[in-house]
């Protein structure tokens, strides 16, 4: 059996954008994304880069070890700022590459970044699990956007959508030794939710979930599973989910845990919800990323690929 991961890590990978704009290839399935035909692409990129740097600085200040790679101008990958969709890293040394729906997102997969993590940053990669062959079959699973992982109990929560297919979930479960909790969910307008990580986040001791968006047939099973694994369930409303409150992420620092989220997500939470999150995990660290959220349809958690790989011994 693979080595279980701790739920949270201090080490993360982020990709700084160079040509960030709203991705027309993802708009049909991502209803959090706003297409603004009048937006100036250069202004959007400048604002996104500033927001990216502010978030990275806030996380570093909190004690998170942030490895930043710059995107490349070509090929144009407008969503490269969201690396968690194409790769995940695991404590046994496994790296998983994922099949993605939008063709222009597939070019985000850069093996040289993995080589740099290994050679320049001292992380050990022992196994590459490549699920990208599923793209030829029209089946997709977009990393820890599609999967919200309870790494301690090896449970993967997955909201089914055009970007999250049962057959690929089954292959992930078999090769990574995870159990799957799959369900359907819709937003306040009744539209399918494109990624699981916009409606829920699982930490070591808490789970923030928009419970009401989960379909009636699966709601009790999802909440029951979270209670069974000892999580305090903090229920989010539809408006809070729309503000990306579900897109938070527990991380580790030398002083303990923190919870990272956007300024908009933080502002949407009640004082009682903030107290519950901080009591279960630690301080909330937030940063403003309105341009990234508006044009990209994703938030802080989407921008972070957690590096759970073992570190190489240093001489």
Topology:
Elements: E1 11-16, H1 41-62, E2 65-70, E3 87-89, E4 94-97, H2 111-119, E5 127-130, H3 143-146, E6 147-150, E7 155-159, H4 166-176, E8 179-183, E9 200-202, E10 206-209, H5 216-228, E11 232-235, H6 238-242, E12 249-253, E13 256-262, H7 263-268, H8 271-280, E14 284-287, H9 290-296, E15 305-306
Parallel strand pairs: 1-2, 4-5, 7-8, 10-11, 13-14
Antiparallel strand pairs: 1-15, 3-4, 6-7, 9-10, 12-13
Helix pairs in contact: 1-9
Keywords, separated by commas or semicolons:
single chain, 315 residues, alpha/beta, L-arginine/glycine Amidinotransferase, Chain A, three-stranded mixed sheet, 21% strand, globular
What does this molecule look like?
This protein has 315 residues and is of the alpha/beta class. It has a single domain (11-306), classed as 5-stranded Propeller (L-arginine/glycine Amidinotransferase, Chain A). It contains 9 helices and 15 strands. The protein has helices at residues 41-62, 111-119, 143-146, 166-176, 216-228, 238-242, 263-268, 271-280, 290-296; strands at residues 11-16, 65-70, 87-89, 94-97, 127-130, 147-150, 155-159, 179-183, 200-202, 206-209, 232-235, 249-253, 256-262, 284-287, 305-306. The strands form 5 sheets. A 3-stranded mixed β-sheet has the order 2-1-15, with helices on one face. It has a 3-stranded mixed β-sheet with strand order 3-4-5, with no helix packed on it. It has a 3-stranded mixed β-sheet with strand order 6-7-8, with helices on both faces. The protein starts with 10 loop residues before the first strand and ends in a 9-residue tail after the last strand.
């Amino acid at each position: 059996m693979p080595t279980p991961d701790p739920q949270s890590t201090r080490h993360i990978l982020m990709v700084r954008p160079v040509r960030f704009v709203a991705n027309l290839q993802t708009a049909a399935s991502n209803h959090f994304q706003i297409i603004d035909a009048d937006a100036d692409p250069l202004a959007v990129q400048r604002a996104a880069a500033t927001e990216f740097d502010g978030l990275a600085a806030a996380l570093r200040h909190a004690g998170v070890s942030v490895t930043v790679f710059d995107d490349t101008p070509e090929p144009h990958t407008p969503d490269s700022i969201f690396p968690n969709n194409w790769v995940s890293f695991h404590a046994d040394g496994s790296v998983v590459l994922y099949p993605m729906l939008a063709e222009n997102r597939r070019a985000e997969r850069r093996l040289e970044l993995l080589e740099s993590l290994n050679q320049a940053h001292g992380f050990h990669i022992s196994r590459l699990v490549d699920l990208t062959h599923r793209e030829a079959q029209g089946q997709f699973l977009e990393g820890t956007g599609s999967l919200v992982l309870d790494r301690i109990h090896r449970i993967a929560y997955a909201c089914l959508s055009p970007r999250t297919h049962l057959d690929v979930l089954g292959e992930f479960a078999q090769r990574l030794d995870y159990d799957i909790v799959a369900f359907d969910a819709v937003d306040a307008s009744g539209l399918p939710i494109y990624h699981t990580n916009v409606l829920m986040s699982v930490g070591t001791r808490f789970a923030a979930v928009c419970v009401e968006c989960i379909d009636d047939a699966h709601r009790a099973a999802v909440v029951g599973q979270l209670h069974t694994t000892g999580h305090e369930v903090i229920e989010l409303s539809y408006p809070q989910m729309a503000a990306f409150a579900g897109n938070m992420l527990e991380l580790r620092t030398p002083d303990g845990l923190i919870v990272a989220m956007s300024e908009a997500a933080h502002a949407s939470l009640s004082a009682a919800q903030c107290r519950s999150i901080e009591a279960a995990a630690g301080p909330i660290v937030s940063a403003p990323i309105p341009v990234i959220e508006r044009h990209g349809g994703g938030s802080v958690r989407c921008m972070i690929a957690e590096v759970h790989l073992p570190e190489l011994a240093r001489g």
